[in-house]
Write a structure and sequence with these properties.
There is one protein chain. By secondary structure, the chain is an alpha/beta fold. It folds into 2 domains: about 1-150 and about 310-335, Alpha-Beta Complex (Quinone Oxidoreductase, Chain A, domain 1); about 155-280, Rossmann fold. Helix content is about 30%, strand content about 25%. It has helices at about 40-45, 95-100, 145, 150-160, 175-190, 200-210, 220-225, 240-245, 270-275, 290-300, 305-310, 320-330, and strands at about 1-10, 10-15, 25-35, 55, 60-65, 80-85, 110, 120, 125-130, 135, 170-175, 195, 215, 230-235, 250-255, 280, 310-315, 335. The strands form 4 sheets. Strands 3, 5, 6, 9, 10, 17 and 18 form a 7-stranded mixed β-sheet that branches. Strands 13-12-11-14-15-16 form a 6-stranded parallel β-sheet, with helices on both faces. It has a 3-stranded mixed β-sheet with strand order 4-8-7, with no helix packed on it. A hairpin with a 5-residue loop joins strand 7 (about 110) and strand 8. The chain starts with a strand and ends with a strand. The chain binds zinc ion (ZN) (2 copies). One zinc ion binds next to helix 2.
Length: about 350
């Protein structure tokens, strides 16, 4: 089978590897598509120089083999099912996992992969072996929607960690792919208003066309956006946290979803937070219950139009180099590779 390997900055190639075997508590998945995410772009651009690396943590495909321990198990994926796949390592043993916080599992995410590469998920391949509890059947939806299982699970985690409740007023800082998914999911689960803040006029216009209640530049957001119960920061630029705090109502929370520059530090007013009971919450990756929400929400069709809007392009696995080139350029929402 083929597997895509990033060998250096700007260099990706397809290598031949032996197909994985199916463990007794695993399923084999024939990958039909895999999204290219921020981590993949950083590996390709050289910002995270880990080579040679098999990237791709957003795969979806069909179950082609079932481990013997999982045949006929109620709720388990069945042969032929379309599944969206959680590629994250959850050791189940570390302090974080044992506190129910497997999103921040302390076990290393990289591991030796096929063909002598470091595997950081390795979903850009023809076939992958997946632990049964990491494969989520998703019904009869378009492949592009199944591929978005991981980012949708990330947003489900963000809404949960951010303390979102139906009826809340929401603002999203950043109108890129993850910002738009926050907007979509907050609306789908009952936000009364959702505003989007972005420096790009195009992205503001696209967010409004997709149903944002309001859209504003960072400069105008304080006058346009008013007070919000939860503010999601998906673009960790200097000034984003301060802006988010200004947009947060008493009792509200700021969820820090996007990564910030390493060297950035921000002054806050602890007494304001004390009097207003404001929360600032870090958000990172996802946990199994977020996958249940994500797979169910995608299967329901409730966000299908929005997911369609966020597909920038689709490539065959043989065109993986072109796909990385496009994903590394901006602006894109999601580039999908596979099949
Ligand atoms: Zn991702
Ligand atoms: Zn762990």
């Amino acid at each position: 089978m083929r597997i895509a390997v990033v060998t250096g900055p700007g260099a990706v190639e397809l290598r031949e590897a032996s197909a994985p075997s199916c463990g007794p508590r695993q399923v084999l998945v024939e990958v039909r598509g895999c999204g290219l995410c921020t981590l993949d772009r950083r590996l390709f651009s050289g910002e995270q120089p880990i080579y040679p690396v098999a990237a791709g943590h957003e795969p979806a495909g069909r179950v082609i083999e079932l481990g013997e321990a999982v045949r006929d198990l109620p709720g388990a994926p069945a042969l032929g099912d379309l599944v969206t796949v959680d590629m994250r390592t959850r050791c189940g043993i570390c302090h974080a996992c044992r506190r129910g916080r497997s999103a921040i599992c302390l076990a290393p995410q990289g591991r030796p992969g096929p063909a002598g590469v470091i595997s950081i998920a390795g979903g850009l391949a023809d076939v992958i072996a997946v632990d049964l509890d990491h494969a989520w059947s998703i019904g009869d939806v378009p492949l592009e929607h199944a591929v978005m299982g991981e980012p949708v699970a990330c947003v489900a985690h963000s809404l949960r960690r951010g303390g979102f409740l139906p009826g809340d007023r929401v603002a999203v800082v950043g109108g890129g792919f993850m910002g738009r998914l926050h907007m979509t999911m907050a609306r789908a689960v009952g936000a009364v208003t959702v505003g989007v803040i972005d420096v790009s006029e195009t992205r503001r216009a696209e967010a409004e066309a997709a149903g944002a209640t309001w859209a504003a530049t960072p400069e105008d957001a304080r006058s346009v956006g008013g007070e919000n119960d939860v503010v999601f920061v998906t673009a960790g630029a200097p000034g984003s946290l301060e802006l988010a705090l200004d947009l947060t109502a008493k009792g509200g929370s700021v969820a820090l979803y996007g990564a910030f520059p390493d060297e950035l530090s921000v002054g806050i007013h602890p007494n304001h937070m004390h009097h207003a009971e404001t929360s600032i919450i870090g958000v990172h990756s996802h946990e199994p219950e977020d996958w249940r929400v994500a797979a169910g929400l995608i299967a329901s069709g409730a966000i299908s139009k929005d997911l369609d809007d966020l597909v920038t392009a689709r490539y065959a696995l043989s065109e993986v180099a072109e796909a990385f080139e496009l994903a590394a350029s901006t602006p894109v929402y999601r580039v999908i590779v596979g099949g």
